[in-house]
Model the fold of this input.
Amino acid sequence: MMNNVEKKEITATILEYDTVAPEVMQINNSKWAIMTYTVDGKVYISKNKIQVPMRASVNDTLTIKYNVKDPTQIYTKHLFVL
Done:
């Protein structure tokens, strides 16, 4: 079902993030971010969080993909190597 979603790449900025475990724990931890980005002149904030590198911080930019029919739905561009 999700493979049929039309997606486009865009550069987005990390607005906020959470970690699964306390941030000082690097092993077996992951960071999940809400992103903000502009599509056709309109600013969006993602409804869902995507996994970002542990070294990522608020205001860092990443290339992501968004759902063309629902731009608030985002996806990771690829898996990150940590």
